């Protein structure tokens, strides 16, 4: 297999990489939330839907992205505008519409700069660099990535420093600077190992494998891909895992190890079909077609290559169409299907010519635009200089009069401006300190509450619980030793039964104060236990769906989620008169999203807000973890609560 094909499967580890759960339940949950969402919350839900459909249906993703942008613009929600433009730009990258992608990123950049969002600016520099790289403008790509790196270094964000170093390494790879590429990859790998970033470590090993492969060292290339596979499987990163399985399959096929190549490529195909990434599916099908061609399995080779061609046409990916047609012509020739072989070659030449013409036309158009821009600038400069000469004579006559006045005005303006800036800085420092102190107080109160809950739970379990158990044993001993009969025996039995109930109540109260499952088993088992304990005795039917929540999160986040849900469930039992409750918990991009829906009588949130202790406690916990909570409810129409917590 030629190196040019292997270069085409180089992994770009981008800041825009994320999690794509892909399950229908996530998009369905978001659509249900969208029905009742309002204002800025609706913008964020539309943005989530845009991202969710990115790999499944780009037209639908674009629809939701544009809806988010239009609504954010009407609401003057600048942060939402920037997010929508960011998501649209990423989709245009996927569609190879790079001019459109740059336009979205440039508009988003203006907003991020106006908001003073340095992290957002750095991320956009990163994405602009990726677009320039795909356009072949490697110098511009390197410039944008270096700008992003400087910002991340100033902010001390090691995770994003590693990702940007990775992107710089890939640009040097495409420039042919292999030693420089390895140098940056190793810097990124060192940081990722320090951060225990399994996905990042796997991506670094995979990209280093591409460098070794380009230098002809297939032994080290295969070694690094196998290292990458181990980390990516552990991290559960399906998209990157599919890329590395496809890469090692391609290498083994090129070496003639077709049986091993077949195993890896079939695994890659299964993953990519699960993700619904048509371009990647077409690529792996094409590689499998070549494997079966090398094995002499003409029927299988033809079947896989025809599927690759059909999907590549559906996705409008001409590169994969060219690869499929080239291989199909060889299969047809080997099986004596001369007419089909000739037809495939003609189609192959036609598409290659289209691609070449498009590239030439794009270069010509770029040169024309640059030439026209330079001509326009020269014309403006010439006209400006002529006008300036005419104005200069008039200005010379007024210069002495206006100089003194201008100097005085400038000094007064400078003094006023400096005073204003001083006041603004002082006000900003004061506000930031007030916010910081408020957050510290809030965190301290919540931590104190949890500590006290834990202490009380332990006291109840180890103190009161054991005392009650001891009393029960004493009662049983009295009954046995004294051999009581009649009313006395019945009274002792009633006392023993009452002690049993008290022990059960103490045990239940202890679990509610500090659930044992939350510490030992994790968030999902503790939620399942709490729902069963709270809702089943009340007769309320419930369902609990969770997606992508297999790993453990910081204790503060897990405890906050559990306590907020506990308060919501208690409110449903006490006030809602509901018969059904649905709970959805999933990971979407960089947020944990929890959706709680009931069919109860609802309530007027505007009137109740700020009154109920439970609502205030939930809001305090949400603020303590930097989250957002939204209520979609009205009297008689049930309630949908959406909680979003950044991880």
Q: Which fold name fills CATH's third level, the topology of the domain at 522-646?
A: Heat Shock Protein 90
> Any low-confidence stretches, pLDDT <50, length ≥5?
1-24
The biggest sheet, with number of strands, parallel, antiparallel or mixed sense and barrel status, is:
5 strands, mixed
Strand content: 5-15%
| Class inferred from helices and paired strands | mainly alpha
How would you summarize the topology of this molecule?
Blueprint lengths: L2 H5 L16 H13 L2 H14 L5 H18 L2 H17 L3 H18 L2 H17 L3 H18 L2 H18 L2 H18 L2 H17 L3 H18 L2 H17 L3 H18 L2 H18 L2 H18 L2 H17 L3 H145 L3 H28 L2 H5 L2 H13 L5 E7 L7 H22 L3 E9 L2 E8 L6 H4 L4 H12 L3 E6 L5 E8 L1
Helix pairs in contact: 2-3, 3-4, 3-5, 4-5, 5-6, 6-7, 7-8, 8-9, 9-10, 9-11, 10-11, 11-12, 12-13, 13-14, 13-15, 14-15, 15-16, 15-17, 16-17, 17-18, 18-19, 18-24, 21-22, 22-24
């Amino acid at each position: 297999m030629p190196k040019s094909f292997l270069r085409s499967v180089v992994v770009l580890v981008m800041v825009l990489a994320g999690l794509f759960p892909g399950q229908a339940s996530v998009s369905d949950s978001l659509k249900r939330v969208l029905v009742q969402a309002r204002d800025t919350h609706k913008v964020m839900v539309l943005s989530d839907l845009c991202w969710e459909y990115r790999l499944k249906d780009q037209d639908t993703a674009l629809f939701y992205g544009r809806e988010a942008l239009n609504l954010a613009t009407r609401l003057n929600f600048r942060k939402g505008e920037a997010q929508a433009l960011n998501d649209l730009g990423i989709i245009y990258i996927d569609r190879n519409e790079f001019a459109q992608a740059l336009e979205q990123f440039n508009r988003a950049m203006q907003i991020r700069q106006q908001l003073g969002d340095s992290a957002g600016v750095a991320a956009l520099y990163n994405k602009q660099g990726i677009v320039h790289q795909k356009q072949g403008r490697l110098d511009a790509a390197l410039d944008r990535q270096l700008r992003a790196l400087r910002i991340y270094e100033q902010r001390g964000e090691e995770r994003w420093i590693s990702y940007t170093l990775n992107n710089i390494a890939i640009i040097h790879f495409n420039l042919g600077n292999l030693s420089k590429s390895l140098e940056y990859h190793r810097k990124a790998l060192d940081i990722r190992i320090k951060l225990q970033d399994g996905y990042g470590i796997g991506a670094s090993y995979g990209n280093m494998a591409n460098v070794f492969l380009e230098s002809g060292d297939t032994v080290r290339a295969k070694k690094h891909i196998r290292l990458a596979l181990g980390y990516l499987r552990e991290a559960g990163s399906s998209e990157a895992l599919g890329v590395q399985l496809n890469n090692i399959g391609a290498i083994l096929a090129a070496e003639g190890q077709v049986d091993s190549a077949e195993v890896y490529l079939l695994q890659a195909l299964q993953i990519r079909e699960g993700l619904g990434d048509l371009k990647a599916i077409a690529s792996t099908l094409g590689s499998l077609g070549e494997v079966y061609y090398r094995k002499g399995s003409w029927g299988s080779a033809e079947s896989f290559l025809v599927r690759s061609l059909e999907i590549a046409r559906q996705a409008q990916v001409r590169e994969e169409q060219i690869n499929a047609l080239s291989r199909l012509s060889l299969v047809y020739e080997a099986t004596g299907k001369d007419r089909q072989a000739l037809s495939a070659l003609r189609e192959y030449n036609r598409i290659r010519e289209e691609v070449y013409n498009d590239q030439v036309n794009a270069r010509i158009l770029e040169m024309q635009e640059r030439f026209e821009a330079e001509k326009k600038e020269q014309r403006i400069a010439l006209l400006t200089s002529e006008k300036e000469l005419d104005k200069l004579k008039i200005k010379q006559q007024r210069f002495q009069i206006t100089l003194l006045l201008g100097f005085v005005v400038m000094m007064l303006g400078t003094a006023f401006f400096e005073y204003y800036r001083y006041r603004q800085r002082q006000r900003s420092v004061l506000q930031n300190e007030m916010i910081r102190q408020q957050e510290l107080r809030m965190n301290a109160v919540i931590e104190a509450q949890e500590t006290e809950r834990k202490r009380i739970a332990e006291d109840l379990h180890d103190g009161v619980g054991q005392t009650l158990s001891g009393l029960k044993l004493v009662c049983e001993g009295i009954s046995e030793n004294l051999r009581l009969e009649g009313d006395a025996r019945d009274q002792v039995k009633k006392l023993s039964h009452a002690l049993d109930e008290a022990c059960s109540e103490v045990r239940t109260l202890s679990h509610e104060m500090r659930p044992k499952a939350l510490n030992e088993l994790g968030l999902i088992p503790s939620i399942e236990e709490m729902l069963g304990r709270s809702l089943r005795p009340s007769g309320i039917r419930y369902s609990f769906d969770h997606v992508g929540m297999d790993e453990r999160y910081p204790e503060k986040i897990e405890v906050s989620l559990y306590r907020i849900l506990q308060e919501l469930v208690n409110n449903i039992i006490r006030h809602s008169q509901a018969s059904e409750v649905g709970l959805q918990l999933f990971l979407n991009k960089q947020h944990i999203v929890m959706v709680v829906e009931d069919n109860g009588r609802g309530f007027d949130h505007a009137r109740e807000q700020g009154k109920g202790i439970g609502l205030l406690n939930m809001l305090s916990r949400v603020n303590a973890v930097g989250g957002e909570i939204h209520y979609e409810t009205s009297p008689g129409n049930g309630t949908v609560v959406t909680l979003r917590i950044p991880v």
